[in-house]
Amino acid sequence: MIRPTPLSDAAMEDALRRLRAGGLVALPTETVYGLGADATDGLAVARIFEAKGRPSFNPLICHVASLPMAEGIAVLGPMARALAERFWPGPLTLVLPSSPTSPVHPLATAGLATVAVRMPRGIARALAGQLGRPIAAPSANRSGGVSPTAAAHVARSLGARVDLILDGGPAEIGLESTIVAVSNDDLTLLRPGGLPAEAIEAAAGRPLLRPPPNASIQAPGQLASHYAPHGRVRLDATAVQPGEWLIAFGPHPLANQSRAAGILNLSPSGDLREAAAALFAALFTLDSPDIARIAVVPIPHTGLGAAINNRLSRAAALR
Ligand code: TXA
Ligand code: MG
Questions:
Q1: Model pLDDT for residues 239-285, shown as the tens digit of each residue
Q2: What's the pLDDT band for 59 if we cut at 50, 70, 90?
Q3: Fewer CB within a 10 Å sphere, N or C end of the chain?
Q4: How far is it between the farthest Cα atoms of the chain?
Q5: In sequence order, what E strands does 112-158 have?
Q6: Distance spanning both ends of the chain, measured CA to CA
Q7: Residues lining ligand 1, CB < 6 A?
Q8: SS3 277
Q9: Separation between Cα atoms, residue 234 and residue 313, nearest integer Å
Q10: Residue 303: left (phi > 0), alpha (psi -120 to 50), or beta?
């Protein structure tokens, strides 16, 4: 089990070194402690999901140091810009269209066309600035657990699953950020949080829309059809049928895979972390009107395999 490290210049440098190397750093923000990794590094982002033990890949919040860094990953219209200028740094997350040139890895956005962006106060912001890249960070708890407001909570929940826990004392706000989706001038409250909705409404000069009760618990990434490529997806394939593309995993070829129209191997060595990082790009690549059928080999359900299988079964869901 890893003990929290008190804040110091040396601790910050250690954190930076680990983030640059694709490591996981638990870091204080003004809302709750986050489990941070370089948002542009797919393997590092896969480690976040692994450490949290999440059965699915929820999209993550990308923490930025500046407005220009936000503009490097998202498209900010006049309304988003006004809210950012008014409330950042602070406990407001904006869900915005991804920038076409965004370096954020698709695993961090769960393959969505939008990205959740927030500029936190304090050392999380400083770290993103020194890294020069956004930091993807969900709350630093095991899946289903309570969001941690102290470094000791992180240590108890994630123990040795992180490389470093920065101890910045108790979280100032103790509640997660308020999440607002911005689409043109429409504002939708996706999650109430540390910034009161009334404050946002006053600044925006308009009411926040509320998603219908059932939709509010589902990020767009949870929708069954979201991950579906154009063609039909067949899971747990042990042989290739004529004309099928094959999504493979691991070193062992299927007996007849030479008859596949094409093969993408998520991880030739059979590494689930590598497969997670490759998954959305693979589905994206195979999403073409020319590809009618896709077979997927069985992928272990252990560790990150649970989330990979969750996404694949959504991709395979009947539409
Ligand atoms: O205060 C906070 O927001 C903390 C600190 C660490 O910044 N982070 C946090 O992250 O609470 P997390 O992963 O526990 O919650 C993020 C929420 C998830 O419910 C996720 O579904 C939603 O943000 N989200 C992320 N990207 C989204 C997107 N593109 N569209 C809709 N929802 C999104
Ligand atoms: Mg959380």
A1: 999 999 999 999 999 999 999 999 999 999 999 999 988 888 788 78
A2: very high
A3: C
A4: 64
A5: 114-118, 135-136
A6: 45
A7: 29, 31-32, 34, 58-61, 93, 95, 109, 112, 114-116, 118, 120, 137-139, 176-177, 179, 190, 219-220
A8: helix
A9: 9
A10: left
